[in-house]
Amino acid sequence: MSLPDADRELVTAELGRDPTPTEAALFENLWSEHCAYRSSRPLLSAFDSEGEQVVVGPGDDAAVVRLPDNDGESETETYITMGIESHNHPSYVDPYDGAATGVGGIVRDTLSMGAYPIALTDSLYFGGFDREHTRYLLDGVVEGIADYGNAIGVPTVGGSVEFHDDYEGNPLVNVACVGLLDEERLVTAEAQEAGNKLVLVGNATGRDGLGGASFASEDLAEDAETEDRPAVQVGDPYSEKLLIEANEDLIEADLVQSARDLGAAGLGGASSELVAKGGFGARIELDRVHQREPNMNPLEIILAESQERMCYEVHPEDVDAVAEIAERYDLGCSVIGEVAEGNYVCTFNGEMVVDVPPAFLADGAPMNDLDATEPTQPERDRPEIDLDAAFEAVVSAPNTASKRWVYRQYDHEVGARTALLPGDDAAVMAIREAGTGLAISAGAVPAWTTIAPYDGARAVALENATNLAAKGATPLAAVDCLNGGNPEKPDVYGGFKAIVDGLADMCRDLSVPVVGGNVSLYNDSIAGPIPPTPTLAMVGAKAGYDAPAAAFAGEGTILLVGEGGDALGGSELLAQVGGSDRFPTLPENASDAVATLAEVADAEATLAVHDVSNGGLAVALAEMVTAETGADIAVDGVASLFEETPGRAVIETADPDAVEAAFEGVAPVTELGEATTDGTLSLLVDGETLAVDAAAIASLRDVLAAELD
Fold it and tell me: Given strand 197-202, what is the order of strands in its sheet?
């Protein structure tokens, strides 16, 4: 890419001269879709981002949220950070390094707020699982995430894996990170005072990742896997681990006034945004940047996206102390310049190569005014359904099958905070500082947003909230990663606009502020655009760290709470057997239903809770069966077994009357049957019977491991 003519004219008019080559490249990257959100920013005002729990909202490296104090002994308030990042194009070109550096980037966003990273989630989207190329990408992405996350000692505790044909030429890798801090450690990416030094700490700068921001803002070409490889960063998790610990020491010693990690657009992006947010400029000497390759020119130094680097604002008298800590961890350290009044100025060997107004560089990109075509839903054309064949097809489908092959490769217990492991509705982290359990859920269902972008996105938000409530947690806040195709296509932009509005509306209904996020557009390839994909990472809080199991205990009555939408649109059933339908109608009182479910999940009589989502009731029940426990279930109609209306949950309880009383006036409660101790799921559906034992269910659900091991 190069700076478009229209943008060049704006820059020339602002500067009163032609931009230097380095300036032109800097504007090209910082005004790209990836950095400036030129097509999406006009839509993002739809989100509510405020609440008494919100300490730092959108616009910083990560959001900061206040946790409830459930032990009453904390002298300072306990905060968490939340951030999410996409590394989509790099993960197609180089799945291992693309995914690994996505982890590294979101972890450094966490560090820059003064937090220590405690949990990761990964939401992954690939083409059809039956394709060899999909399995190659999946294998590389999972290995990259595992190797990087495991090496830096941050547990990967949740996420999702989805397969859909329209990701064939452009997979998505969305990674979220949660960090922990208290009010005294908080740092922001807003420069504080002119005269403070700008210090670069971490790996030496090389030529890797050049133009990564602009690369992320264009459609993938047919030869992207070979031609675009230089735009993919190369990660070093062992340096990142050292950087994590060095950052911890710097924060503890109160040596950091502000910070920003070096991600998109490298040093130019981090340093210019840091000073612009504070209303300052900068004086930077690019030749003082520690480098690992010879003869680097100023454009390469300022835009390289070499990993494991942080930019700190430091009081002049503290520079030596910062250098000592960097040396202790064998990290490079360069005093590259200082915060200043006026313009953002960079020199190289004494010559000016950049001299621009920082606010114009950081926020001056013009927004796009694009046409949008409103999406429509398909007509109802339901096929004839054979119970046995449908159950087998849906339970064994890659989207609903066990994802254990993925998460078993991650270290999900490092740090000794993981109270509830992957494979459940939500992970639960023990925040002992506040006596609080932090539940985490992340993901999206592209089948839903493909046929109904607006309602599908609402369903994604409700589904994540239900996951938290099923573990007894009340939703607290969320971050989103909004993925779409080429926004210049009216149908693509119409679908993208719909997922933004749908996600915003349901989060508002749930009283969940969306405190930050990421946008990734131009996810198009020769295979076409991806589905509009609104990945959501949501956290919830509860007193203590215990949560009900998602497997039958074998002792209680089995209830279904929540009302179905009497529609199969977006369901795995239709994906397997064909046909079409509209998307289910969602409940009008979602917030009350979620709050009630969280209350019931924590009740002493509750033996098990599992939400109903992908694959519907059939998959939820199958996932609850163990070798020792099963269930005798009766359902009215095959469609009721497979429709995927979110906001519902299966509850095994020793006190069904109490559950019905709790949900009175909130949501219907249907008695499905009784739990058993025979390890078999026995279904009676409209006079038809089906019995499947735990071993057969496990075999059906083991499709990923069967193909990939």
Answer: 258-261, 309-314, 197-202, 332-340, 281-285, 344-348, 351-356
* Pairwise CA distance, residues 704 & 357, whole Å: 52
Q: What is the mean pLDDT of the chain?
A: 93
Closest to 100 (Cα-Cα) out of 69, 67, 142, 66: 142
Contact at 8 Å (CB) between 301 and 290? no
- Asked whether 406 and 708 are in contact (CB, 8 A), the reply is no
Edge-to-edge strands, sheet with 648-653: 606-612, 648-653, 557-561, 669-676, 630-635, 680-685, 688-693
Instruction: Output the six-digit token pair for 545.
Output: 């760290």
Structure tokens at 131: 């394709």
For residue 703, the SS3 value is helix
Strand partners, 610: 650
Long-range contacts of 359-365 (CB under 8 A, 24+ apart): 359/276, 359/279, 360/14, 361/26, 361/27, 361/30, 361/272, 361/276, 362/30, 362/272, 362/273, 362/276, 362/277, 363/276, 364/10, 364/14, 364/31, 365/7, 365/30, 365/31, 365/36, 365/38
| E strands, 504-592, in order | 514-520, 524-525, 528-529, 533-543, 557-561
CB contact at 8 A, 505 and 456:
no
Distance CA 399, CA 127 (A): 11
Identify whether the C-beta of residue 540 lies closer than 8 Å to the C-beta of residue 529: no
pLDDT at 438: 97
CA separation, residue 656 to residues 471, 627, 701 (Å): 18, 25, 30
Q: Give kind and range of the element (H or E) at residue 463.
A: helix 453-470
Q: How many CB atoms lie within 10 A of CB 402?
A: 18
- Flag residues of the chain having pLDDT under 70: 1, 72, 74, 209, 211-232, 415
R_g of the chain computed on alpha carbons: 25
Q: What pLDDT is stored for residue 370 in this prediction?
A: 94
Question: Which two tokens mark 331?
Answer: 């990290």
Q: Can you state the angle between helices 132-152 and 95-111, rounded to 10 degrees? A: 30
- DSSP for residue 74: -
d(CA 456, CA 567) in angstroms, rounded, equals 13
Helix (H), strand (E) counts: the chain: 25, 28
Q: Which residues are catalytic?
A: 34, 87
Pairwise CA distance, residues 647 & 658, whole Å: 19
Let me know: does 314 contact 322? Beta carbons within 8 Å.
yes
Strands (E), 317-462: 332-340, 344-348, 351-356, 418-420, 427-431, 436-443
430: left (phi over 0), alpha (psi -120 to 50) or beta: beta
Output the pLDDT for position 76: 87
What residues contact residue 446 under an 8 Å CB cut-off, 6+ apart? 125, 162, 164, 166, 167, 530, 531, 533
